[in-house]
């Protein structure tokens, strides 16, 4: 199905079923290339969401600064100062009802720029409360009703499991339970062994992913995996 027809079909489904059309969705895209499998994933994901409800932050293209410098470290727990320089990203997170990550897995984990985005944006006073000792004391992102990620892997699934899949653990355990409400729905979609798979195999996987995303975005449910 051509991309334009696919987008129209997806938006008509949204309008009929009342799903993603009413859910403000923030996508964090962490791949430097606009000509990549991740870019195609982003395109297909975007086709499932009404344009007015979608914000995409291409953090590599934007040149996002992921570093926690000494100055930033010293005000990390200062709610009045710790969002300096990332105010627009914080505003996007606070606007969103769905937060979705699209990224490649490098050295088994999150790309450095995405790890840095988590460290600089999902900060105390934004993503979590802290107690007098500076320890996490409860989630703050009660606005997020759907949380998920779509990741690509050069390694096969069995090797990824052997290594421990640290990127997935960071997002789906660390971020999910530290910053999000218990009622938040979650999903995880993985594309393994991408360098050895045929174009036909990858195309079929993308079609299944797109169908899965429509169901996730349009209907309520629990954690979904592909």
Total E-strand runs = 8
Mean pLDDT: 89
Low-confidence parts? 7-21, 220-225
Order of helices and strands: HEHEHHHEHEEEHHEHE
State the helical fraction: 40-55%
Strand proportion, as a percent range, falls in: 15-25%
How many helices? The count is 9
Q: Layout of helices and strands, plus pairs?
A:
Elements: H1 3-17, E1 25-29, H2 37-47, E2 54-58, H3 59-62, H4 70-74, H5 87-95, E3 98-104, H6 112-121, E4 128-130, E5 136-139, E6 146-152, H7 157-163, H8 166-179, E7 185-191, H9 199-218, E8 224-225
Parallel strand pairs: 1-2, 1-3, 3-6, 6-7, 7-8
Antiparallel strand pairs: 4-5
Can you give a write-up of this model?
By secondary structure, the protein is α/β, with parallel strands linked by helices. The protein has a single domain (3-225), classed as Rossmann fold, CATH 3.40.50. It contains 9 helices and 8 strands. Helix 2 links the parallel strand 1 (25-29) and strand 2 (54-58). Residues 7-21 and 220-225 have low confidence and may be disordered.
Characteristics:
single chain, 226 residues, alpha/beta, Rossmann fold, 6-stranded parallel beta sheet, two-stranded antiparallel sheet, 42% helix
């Amino acid at each position: 199905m051509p991309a334009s027809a696919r987008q129209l079909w997806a938006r008509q489904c949204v309008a009929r079923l009342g799903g993603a059309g009413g859910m403000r969705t923030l996508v964090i895209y962490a791949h430097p290339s606009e000509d990549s499998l991740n870019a195609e994933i982003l395109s297909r994901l975007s086709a499932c969401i009404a344009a007015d409800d979608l914000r995409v932050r291409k953090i590599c293209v934007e040149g996002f600064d992921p570093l926690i410098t000494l100055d930033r470290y010293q005000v990390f727990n200062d709610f009045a100062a710790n969002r300096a320089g990332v105010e627009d990203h914080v505003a996007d997170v606070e606007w969103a009802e769905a937060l979705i990550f699209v990224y490649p897995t490098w050295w088994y984990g999150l790309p450095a720029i995405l790890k840095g985005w988590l460290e600089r944006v999902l900060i105390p006073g934004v993503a979590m409360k802290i107690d007098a000792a500076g320890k996490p004391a409860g989630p703050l992102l009660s606005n997020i009703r759907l949380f998920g990620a779509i990741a690509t892997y050069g390694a096969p699934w069995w090797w990824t499991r052997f290594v421990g899949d640290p990127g997935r653990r960071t997002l789906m355990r660390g971020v999910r339970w530290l910053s999000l409400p218990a009622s938040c729905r979650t999903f995880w979609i993985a594309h393994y062994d991408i360098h050895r798979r045929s174009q036909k195999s990858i195309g079929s996987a993308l079609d299944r992913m797109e169908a899965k995303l429509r169901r996730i975005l349009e209907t309520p449910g629990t954690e979904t995996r592909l």
